[in-house]
Amino acid sequence: GGEGSLSKIVIGANNVHESGKDIYCEISAGWDSRTDTFFGPADVNLKSPRSQAETVTRLVTRTKGDIDKELWASLIEQVCHKVLLDYRAGEPFVILADLPEFGPVKYCFEGFLPADETTAIACAGGKGKGWIAADLCLCYALNRPFVVDRYEVNCEDLPAVMYFDWEENANETARRFQWLMKGMGISALPRNILYRRMTRPLIEEVNVMRAEAVRKNVGLVVIDSLAPASGGEIKDERMATRTMEAIREFSPATRFVIGHVSKSDAKNESSHVTIIGSGFYEYLARSYWEMQAE
C-alpha cells in the first residue's frame, strides 16, 4: 500500500487436486485483486501444517515483514480449511420433488447440441473437425442456423463463444474463420468469439478460464481437442474423468469437445469409431457424434 497503509489482501485458491492421500491447491495472494499478485501460484498441501508453515514463511519474506507472521498463519490456515471443506462437501443434495417441470430438452443448436451439456464428436485427423468447430462458432456468434439451416441456434442471454485450442495457433485459426466468412458472405468477424491457444492440461487452468467465461457471458465452449486437454494421459481413466468434470465446470455454457480416433478406426471408416483413450470421454458426454468422410 501507499504512505504506510496496507491494501486489502486477496488470496486465491485454484486447481484443487489429490495426490495419494494428500490434497493440494495452488495459492496466490495479491493486493486488492487476484490479478495484482505478489505471490504464487504455489502448491500447498491442505492437510499438512508443515506445508502451510512454509507458505507463511515465504509470504512474510515476500511482503518484507509488512504483515506479521501470525496474521499470515491465520489467513493461510483459514483458506486451507475452507478449501478442504468445500472440496470434500461436493454438490449439495437436491429434493427432486421440489424442482419445477422442465418440459422437453432444450438445445443450443436444435437437435444437435443439448443446452448446458457436453457433446463430444469423434473424428480422424484431417477430416474437417476443426472446420466444423469454426463453423459452429461463427453460427453461434452470428445467431444463425448451423449446416444450411438444419440446426436452429438458441443463444438466449449468453451470446459469446470461447474456443480453447491445443492444436493450432491464433493466426491459422483466424485464417480458417476468414475463409468461412467469405463463403458465408460475412464482411467482419464477430467480436464475441474469444480464442485462446492452450499448452497446459485443462484441469490446471479451468478455474481462471471459467471465471473469464462468466465475465464474458459465454454460452458455447469449444475444446479442441481432448487428448492434449488431458495432458496426453488419454488412457488414464482418472485423468479422463477429471478432464470431463473440468469441462462441465463451464456450465451454464454448452460444451462441444473434439476427440481423435485410433489409427485402426481411422483406416476402417465403416466401423463404429470411438474417441481414442478412456471410454469415459464418451460415457461422460451428454451426447456423442461420429464424423466420417463419405
Separation of the first and last Cα atoms = 65 Å
Spans of at least 5 consecutive residues whose pLDDT stays below 50 are: 1-5
Across the major sheet, the strand order is 8-7-9-10-6-11
Content of β-strand? 15-25%
Q: Helices and strands, in N-to-C order?
A: EEEHHEEEHEHEHEHHEHHE
What is the number of helices? 9
- Averaging pLDDT over every residue, what do you get? 89
Rounded radius of gyration (Å): 22 Å
The biggest sheet amounts to: 6 strands, parallel
Q: Structural class, from secondary structure content?
A: alpha/beta
The helix content, as a percent range, equals 25-40%
Q: What overall geometry do the principal axes of the alpha carbons give?
A: globular
Extended strand count: 11
Written overview of the protein:
It is globular, with a radius of gyration of 22 Å. The chain has helices at about 50-60, 70-90, 130-140, 170-185, 205-215, 225-230, 235-250, 265, 280-285; strands spanning about 10-20, 20-30, 35-45, 105-110, 115, 120-125, 160-165, 195, 220-225, 255-260, 285-290. The strands form 3 sheets. It has a 6-stranded parallel beta sheet with strand order 8-7-9-10-6-11, with helices on both faces. Strands 1-2-3 form a 3-stranded antiparallel beta sheet, with helices on both faces. About 35% of the residues lie in helices and about 25% in strands. The protein has about 290 residues and is an alpha/beta fold.
Write a concise keyword list for the protein shown above.
single chain; 294 residues; alpha/beta; 6-stranded parallel sheet; 3-stranded antiparallel sheet; 9 helices
